[in-house]
């Protein structure tokens, strides 16, 4: 199954911070080079000091917002690339969805999204391992008992991706 693009809040906030940071930094730098140094009023008696403070604050805040925003964007793109790499080169196992839980870390309009826990019993070591899916804002109780693919990193089994699509759940009446 292909990874479908979805609205990601952290990615959206990252782009907003990056664009705003770029605009503020550009305003500060352009005003520094093309602005009138002697017409800025402020808390200092010397208008040149006020000018440097104004351009410095705009530039510093812009660069700070740009750095934070690009950090969010890079983090989300690395997660997406890791998922794609796991789908292409990961070690595939099949597990059964055993339970659903509300994700208490996230609240959307007073409601917690749900995630599923998948159970996998290793036939060689006879050890039971549990894997957690992403959070979804739908009722996932119909997914209990489904078999899903889990892609593991061959070098580190704690890095995984569960290929679970809540749209493919069987409907139970």
- Provide the structure class: alpha+beta
Radius of gyration: 25 Å
Q: Approximately how much beta-strand content do the residues carry?
A: 15-25%
Could you give the count of β-strands?
5
Summed over residues and divided by their number, the pLDDT gives a mean of 86
* Main sheet summary: 5 strands, antiparallel
Strand order, largest beta sheet:
3-2-1-4-5
Question: Share of helix among residues?
Answer: 25-40%
The low-confidence parts are: 1-6
Helix count, DSSP H or I runs of 4 or more residues: 2
Query: What is the N-to-C succession of helices and strands?
Result: HHEEEEE
Number of domains: 2
Distance between the termini: 27 Å
The global form is elongated
Features:
alpha+beta; 2 domains; 5 strands; elongated
3D architecture notes:
- With 173 residues, the protein is α+β, with helices and mostly antiparallel strands.
- It has helices at 9-34, 47-89, and strands at 91-102, 114-121, 128-132, 147-152, 160-163.
- Strands 3-2-1-4-5 form a five-stranded antiparallel β-sheet.
- Helix 1 packs antiparallel against helix 2.
């Amino acid at each position: 199954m292909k990874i479908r693009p979805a609205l990601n809040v952290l990615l959206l906030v990252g782009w907003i911070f990056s664009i705003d940071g770029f605009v503020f930094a550009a305003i500060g730098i352009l005003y520094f080079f093309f602005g009138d140094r002697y017409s800025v009023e402020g808390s200092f008696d010397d208008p040149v000091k006020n000018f440097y403070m104004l351009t410095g604050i705009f530039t510093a805040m812009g660069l700070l917002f740009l750095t934070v925003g690009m950090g969010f964007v890079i983090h989300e793109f690395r997660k997406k690339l890791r998922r794609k790499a796991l789908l292409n080169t990961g070690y595939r196992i099949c597990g059964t969805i055993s339970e659903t839980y509300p994700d208490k870390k996230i609240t959307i309009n007073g409601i917690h999204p749900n995630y599923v826990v998948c159970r996998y019993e290793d036939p060689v070591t006879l050890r039971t391992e549990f894997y957690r899916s992403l959070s979804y804002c739908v009722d996932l109780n119909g997914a209990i008992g489904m078999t899903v693919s889990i892609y593991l990193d061959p070098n580190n089994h704690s890095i995984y991706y569960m290929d679970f699509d809540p749209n493919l759940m069987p409907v139970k009446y």
